[in-house]
Every structure is written in structure tokens, then in C-alpha cells.
Amino acid sequence: MDEFDIEVLADPDLEDPVLVEGLPGVGHVGKLAAEHLLEELDSELVRRVYSTHFPPQVSIDDRTAQLASAEFHAVTPEEGRDMLVLSGDHQAQDSEGHYGLTDAFLDVGEDFGVEEVFALGGVPTGELIEEYDVLGATTTDEFADRLEASGVVFREDEPAGGIVGVSGLLLGLGERRDIPAACLMGETSGYLVDPKSAQAVLEILQDVVGFDVDYESLEERADEMEEVVRKIQEMEQQNAPSPADEDLRYIG
Amino acid sequence: MDEFDIEVLADPDLEDPVLVEGLPGVGHVGKLAAEHLLEELDSELVRRVYSTHFPPQVSIDDRTAQLASAEFHAVTPEEGRDMLVLSGDHQAQDSEGHYGLTDAFLDVGEDFGVEEVFALGGVPTGELIEEYDVLGATTTDEFADRLEASGVVFREDEPAGGIVGVSGLLLGLGERRDIPAACLMGETSGYLVDPKSAQAVLEILQDVVGFDVDYESLEERADEMEEVVRKIQEMEQQNAPSPADEDLRYIG
Amino acid sequence: MDEFDIEVLADPDLEDPVLVEGLPGVGHVGKLAAEHLLEELDSELVRRVYSTHFPPQVSIDDRTAQLASAEFHAVTPEEGRDMLVLSGDHQAQDSEGHYGLTDAFLDVGEDFGVEEVFALGGVPTGELIEEYDVLGATTTDEFADRLEASGVVFREDEPAGGIVGVSGLLLGLGERRDIPAACLMGETSGYLVDPKSAQAVLEILQDVVGFDVDYESLEERADEMEEVVRKIQEMEQQNAPSPADEDLRYIG
Amino acid sequence: MDEFDIEVLADPDLEDPVLVEGLPGVGHVGKLAAEHLLEELDSELVRRVYSTHFPPQVSIDDRTAQLASAEFHAVTPEEGRDMLVLSGDHQAQDSEGHYGLTDAFLDVGEDFGVEEVFALGGVPTGELIEEYDVLGATTTDEFADRLEASGVVFREDEPAGGIVGVSGLLLGLGERRDIPAACLMGETSGYLVDPKSAQAVLEILQDVVGFDVDYESLEERADEMEEVVRKIQEMEQQNAPSPADEDLRYIG
Asked: Region annotation Disordered: residue ranges (chains A, B, C, D) (predicted)?
């Protein structure tokens, strides 16, 4: 197997498509968002990218094995622009793998004539979120203006540590290829899988790209997560001294 | 030395052979199983595979040194199909090594016309085993059907973490070469070398491939391991408070 | 992207330039010194060096992303020799990256006809510094003589652990290319960013190379750091038992 | 710089030389032994081997820097066979570096017509040594017989963990090139630099290869080390309860 190996499964014509990336990361925000698109819209598996920089691993699906890979699905919705959705269960395991895979992903994008790249992800805030802002970073000021008009928030020097991994490199290497690229980062606590943050990111993307999806299943997953959080909080309260006890101390 | 270096030691003709892999892993199940085949059946060393991804190490056997390698033995038993048995003391030390070595192993397999691959290993359950199920994963449904008929158990999405290392990649890369491959994973606690699990795996393989071996030496090793477990349990009981003491506490 | 990728942004003629390197390191001494030169003197960005051995990362500056890189600025001051200043936010992440990047940096230097290399850095002493000596190491005795005349201190077998990273390799690989190279290492505690140490290094370089810069902004940063140190010491004193208490114990 | 880079400094004719390797390792036994040969016998620096797998580092010797490397000295003593002595301060930092450097070292050896390789090192016993046995491992039985006649001890399956690093690979890769190679491993506690173990190894080598060196300086270093050990033991006794106290407990 080559270091980076692109398997061609189908070659549909796409019209001015955008590339939408959602690989695993903070709060699984990007991955949830990309997978939601694939669940809600008709899609066709068009490419698999294998790499010796992925974990040496197969996953078991029913009875058969699937080699670690990233997948591209073509989505041609009735409303909005065509999309090439990049998803998967793995990130590269080293720096050279991140660079090489991102180059391979952009090669696939260029095969399909991709005109813009959207890297979806989460940005950790360290606390529970009430209102889910979506932070942005781009390769051109013109792109930033358009995103700002759709509600994306740009804050100076944020995220402070930059953007790491494939999402960041899609901007860095995209810019070097003159492909406009943006990173849409949903705020998220960073502690839990966060379907609400994924929905916030998708709603921005929907406004920019123009598809039409239902968010019911994502809202259900968000409710499930809130139930989990509620139970954790309950357990913590039972272990902590009761408020009554604490009040008494202050009175007595 | 090349990154992956195949040394040719003999080139016997094999008839429709199967490749049986048993490198070190969970409970040493695969390694014990492969080595048992080589002890019980006549075999000939046909290939050694060296790699700069193996540990930089020689082992000392009597007075002379043997460079880290994986070995292929040809086994042509009276009963059952010819086998190419892959064994050794080492795994690759990084992701690229796992991919490259598995490709080299499949190259050797194709040299000998291998028609099916069986990767032997263990799957950790975290608790002591009474009845040793053998879990399976394959590259084709047809292969899975045949294995199920021989008693292999297929459970949805198990093992949950997928299959890591050479055993997993023999399926993943085998499938890409159109070589049917299966992983037979004996259940094992994961804490100890497990000859019983190795025997369970071999009994399945025996049914599928058709050789005839005696299990006495493996049963003796299993008895030795049970003696070890018994002694550990005794020591733990002596350190724990006696049940009598605990009862008294509750009464008093 | 290539493993090491030099982007040409401008190609001014420089007269007998010296290469001045200030990448991140102990006390950020070299980085502060190089950045101070670029703030105080007119400069032009001439090269960016990208590498798959840098972290897979973009930094966000205002709204747009910048791929991890090292930058060369050409500085042609009225007084003193022309300079090629190498700065950046990253070091390579592995040994091969350090070697390869240093070779790429020397390639850029040779493109511009660099005649001497000055690697700027800090040397940790483990204690707060009163007087900031600047230690030296070079590739030739003649170069060492000149530096000693400018106040650089040479101590036998110091630094004891040698010089690690790009600064060290600029000497090691520079020597192999017959480019005279020196490392100027400002003493620094090693615990804090140290603008005073950076100033000490620059004052030596000023004497050797002949530029004329103002140190006010560096002195302001040094004052800020001293304020930080003062506050830390105050907090430590409040937590420690007062000397009075301790005396009493001995008396009572 | 190439991944492995051999610098030619001199090319004297050597007659049927042996290669003697003493790089850093357990108890610095091999390094002490090789350096003792170079101190006691006339030698000429003939090769330096650089590698991107060495640490990215220069060492400072007086005022000038020396890039991390391994050195070959030619030794043509009046008595005994010519020798090519390999020494240095570094080991490779990864598995591929160990393999590649050992291949480069054997290339240099073959340039000079080396007929036998002696890898010198220590084998840790975990306790202080009274009598310093020298363990052996070789590539051929004939070589083992000769070494046994000179007092080398061969113990079945020892060292249990095999031999790791360049010393081990000189045997493993030497055997693949049909160059007889042996590892001479002086027993050593493994906790301290051990000049006595180095002397034990050299006395064996002296018997096999036939040189004549004085051991006074090595004995002085051994005395210094014993003084260090004595002081450590004293400090430990002062901290431990005195033997008198312990006796009383048993009496009372």
C-alpha cells in the first residue's frame, strides 16, 4: 500500500461543489455535523483514502472488516450547492501524516472541481455553553466578510493556540493552492460529545451553502446528552454536603 | 538492509495453501496456536522477513545471535490443506511498519499461491473464561457463513475497538488484494498467557482446514497456568480478611 | 507539500549579509532578540520555509490563517552589515526535521550569499541573573577570537550538554559547508521569558555586526517581567512562615 | 545532509583488521573500553559518520562545536592485529536509525577489509560484581569456540532479553553479510560507570586480538568509582537504623 492511497469508487459530475470536512475532534462537533448531512441527504460514496499514517486497524461492521480510511461522499441536494463530504473515524498519527493526508484530501477536492472548503470542528471553552457561537477563520478577507454576514464570529487571535490537525491544514495548504477555505468552529465545553454545537455549525453552513436539512435527530441526541449531564450533576450533588447542612453551619 | 527484506530459504510447491498467522498479541493466543502447529506437524522454514521497523535487536539462542524477524514455515500434512505458518517474537514498532510488514507477508503468501488467510489471536474479556468462544471477522459474507458453520461466533460490532496490528491488517489489506481473510479470536481474560484459548482457536481451524494434531502439550501448559492462577488466588485470600470475620461484623 | 518547502517572496540584493537566527528556545532569548531587530529596523519578508516536520497547525492572525513556517526577513540598515533575520514560532518536532530544516535554512542563506551565521539563544543557569554574560561557541578559532574581543565569554566544555536544535545544527552543518557560524547564548534563569538576556545578546551582536537599534521597548518588557517576578516573590513570602515566628520557635 | 553520511578523513592501509565497537551503553563498558584503546595506542581518525537519526546536537569542545557523530580510528599496534575502533557519544534515536547506522558502520568496515567484528558492551546483573565474567554471543560456532578458549562465558539464552542497539545489530547484520561478529559483554551492576568491567572485556579482547596495553588509568578510574560507592554506602548507613539498635530488638 502507498503512504497515501486514494481508492476511486465513483466519479459523478458535481457542479461547483464545496468540500465539507468533519473528522473526529473536539466534542466530535465536525464529525457529528458531517455525519448528519450524510444521514439527512442522499449521497454516494465516491472515494476512500487509506494511509500508513492512519492507525494499523480494521473496524468490524456486522461480520466484515473495514480498513481504517477517510471517506468522501458526493451530495447533490435539490436545494443549494453540490457538496463533497469528507468523514471518517480516524486522524493521522503523526505530523507528516496530517500534512500528507490533507494534501490527498485537497487532491480529491480538485478532482471534483471543489471551489471552497469548509472545515467543521469545535472550539473548547472549558465551561458549559448557553449560546452556541460559531467562530471562524479563513484564508481570504472576502471569504471572512461573507461568513460574518451569515453570523460567523471572528475574534482577534482566537483560537489562541491556532487550529491543529486536518482542519487547520485545509486552510494552510488550501491557501497555498489558492482554494478559499474556512474553518467553522462551534463553541463547546470540550468535555462531552456536543450535538448542539454541531447543529449551530450546520445552521451557519446551511445559510452559506444553501441546503435544507431537518435537525430532529440531532436534537434528540442533544436531549440524550443533556440527560447524561443532568444525571452526572445529580450524582455530584448527592456526594457533596447538602445545601441545608452548609446553611446551618453559617447560621450556627 | 531494506525497510522490508524477504529472505528466501526454500521454495517448496504448496497445493492451494492457507496462510496461518500467529504473532505475539493478547494472551499470546495466536503465537501459542501457530507454534503448536509447528511443534506437532512436520514443517520447513521457507522465508524470513526482516524489517527496520522491528526492534533493533538480536535474540541469543545457545551461543549464536538471530536478528529480529518473522518466519514462514511450510506445512504439508497428510490430512487437510497445505499451510504456510507465520510466527515470530516481534511486532512492528510503528504504524508504517505494521502496514509495510503486512504487505510483505501477503507478498510471501501470494508467492506460494495462498488462497485464504487465517489471522489467529485473542480477544480480551477482562474476566476469567469458563467456555472459550472463538469470535470471528472476515472480508466476505461467504467466508463468514463457512466459519459460522464451524462454530465461530460473530457478534455485531465486536470487538468494539476493531482489530489492531498485523492480524487486523491481514483482513484490511487482504480484502484490497481480493484474498479472503478471516480473524479467529479466542476469548481470553487478557491477563495471562492462555493455552486453552489457543486450543479453542486451533480446534476451529482444524475443522475448517482439516489437519489432525494432538493437544496434549497445550493441555499441559494450560494445567500449569491454572496452577499459577490457583496460587495467586490463594495468596489473595490469605491477605483478605476471612469471611468469618466479616460475618461477625454484620452480626455484632 | 514537500518535506521542506521554501517559498520565495522577494529577492533583494544583499551585500555580504550575515544570517541571524532567533527561533523559540530557552527564555525565548533568541526569538525576542530577532523580533526586536525586525521591530526596530526596516525589513522585507523574503522567504517562508514550510515543513511537514513543523506542527500540523495554522495560527490565526485577525481573521485569516497562517500555516506554520519560519520566516526570513532581509534587513539593510544604514549602519552596519546587511542581515538576513530568521524568526518564527515553531521548532521541528523530530530529529530529522531539525537536520532538514537547518539544511533548508543554510540553503536560503547561501542563496543570499551569507558569509557568517549568528544563532541567538539562551543558556539556562537555574538561578536569577544579576549580570548577563553572553556565552559563545563557534566553528573556527579565528571567529572565536573576534567574538571574545567583543565581550563574548568562552568557558571550557560549556554548555555542558552541548547545543541542541537548530541553533546547534547551524554550527554543525554550517561548519560542514565552510560557513563560519557562532552561537551567542545569553545567560538566563530558564524559568521566564527574559528580555534582559535578549538585550545582552543583541548588544554583543551590535558590536560585531554594527547596526544601531534602540532598546527602550525591550527594557519596558524587562520591567514588566520584573514586576511579575516581584509579585511571585511576594506571594511566596505570604505563604511562608514569617522569619519572626521561626526565631521565636528557636528561643522558646 | 544525507540520512547517513560518511566523511572520509584518511585512508590508511590496514592488514586484516578487526572492527572494535564501543558506543555508549550499559555501564558505559564498551565506550570505556574503546576509549582506553585509543588513549593507550597510537591511532588516526579515518572516518566520521553523521546521521539525521543522531540527536540534533553539537558538543562544545573548548571554543568550537562538533556535530554529533560516530568516529572510526585506525590503530596499527606493533603487537597484534590492526584494529578499526568505532567510538562516539551518541546512539541513534529510533529503530530505523539503529539499522541504518549499523549498515553504515559495516560499510566502513568493509572499506577497510575488516574480517571480524567485536562489539563491546556491558550486561546488567542488578547487583555489585565481585568477579567480572565476560559473556559472549557470536554469529558462528567456530567463532564461539575460539572465544570460549579465551575465557568468554556462554550461557544458554543469555542475555535473556537479547542484545539491543548497534552492538546487537552488528551481529545480526554482520551475519547477513557473512562477516563473523561477536559481542563481548562484561558483567556490571548496571547502576554505575564500570571501568573494571571494561578492563575485563579488554583483557579478553587482548587475548583474542593480541595487542598490549597498560590498564593503570582504567584501574585509577575504577578506584575512583569504588570511592564513590563507598561514600554512598556510608550515607545510607547513617540514614538507616544502626546495627546495634537492630540487635537490641532481637535480644529484648
From this structure: 233-252
Query: At a CB cut-off of 8 Å and minimum separation 6, what does D31 contact?
Result: D22, D23, D24, D25, D87
Which residues of chain B are within 8 Å of residue D163 when distances are taken between CB atoms? 57-58, 60, 65
For C4-214, CATH gives 3.40.50.10900
Say whether C63 and A141 touch across the interface (CB within 8 A): yes
pLDDT in tens, A149-206: 999 999 988 898 899 999 999 999 999 999 999 999 999 998 889 999 999 999 999 9
Q: Is the dihedral of CA B188, B192, B195, B198 positive or negative?
A: positive
Contacts of D168 in chain B (CB under 8 A): 56-58, 65
What are the two backbone dihedrals, phi and then psi, of residue A203, each rounded to the nearest 5 degrees? -65, -35
Q: Under a CB-based contact definition with an 8 Å cutoff, are residues B45 and B73 in contact?
A: yes
- Contact at CB, A169 and C64, closer than 8 angstroms: no
Domain ranges of chain D: 4-214
- Mind listing the pLDDT tens digit for each residue in B140-170? 999 999 999 999 999 988 898 899 999 999 9
Q: List, in sequence order, every residue forming a beta bridge with A75; answer none if it has no partner.
A: A83
What is the DSSP pairing of strand A64-67 with strand A57-61?
antiparallel
Do B51 and B92 form a contact (C-beta atoms < 8 A)? yes
Residue B148 burial by Cβ neighbours in a 10 Å radius (0-12, 13-18, 19+) = middle
φ/ψ of C90, rounded to 5, equals: -135, 150
Which residues of chain A neighbour C68 with C-beta distances below 8 Å? 172
Q: Kindly write down the DSSP assignment for every residue of C86-148, as one continuous string.
A: EEES---SSHHHHHHHHHHHHHHHHHTT--EEEEEEEEE-SS--SS--EEEEESSHHHHHHHH
C-alpha to C-alpha distances, C15 to A191, B64, C83, C181, nearest whole angstrom: 56, 63, 9, 18
Report how far residue C185's alpha carbon sits from residue B208's, in angstroms, rounded to the nearest whole number: 70
Helix pair B195-209, B29-40: axis angle to 10 deg: 60
| CA-closest candidate to residue A114, choices A77, A86, A78 | A86
Q: Can you list the positions of beta strands (E) in C12-56? A: 18-22, 44-51
Under 8 Å between Cβ of C34 and C87? yes
Q: What is the CATH number of domain A4-215?
A: 3.40.50.10900
Each residue's pLDDT expressed in tens, for chain D with a length of 252 residues: 899 999 999 999 999 999 999 999 999 999 999 999 999 999 999 999 999 999 999 999 888 999 999 999 999 999 899 999 999 999 999 999 999 999 999 999 999 999 999 999 999 998 888 889 999 999 999 999 999 999 999 998 889 889 999 999 999 999 999 999 999 999 999 888 999 999 999 999 999 999 999 999 999 999 998 898 888 888 887 776 554 444 433 333
Å between A137 CA and nearest CA of chain B: 32
CB contact under 8 A, C163 and D52: no
Rg (CA), chain D: 20
Which residues lie closer than 8 Å to D128 by C-beta, 6 or more apart? D189, D229
Residue B93: Cβ-neighbour burial (10 angstroms; 0-12, 13-18, 19+): middle
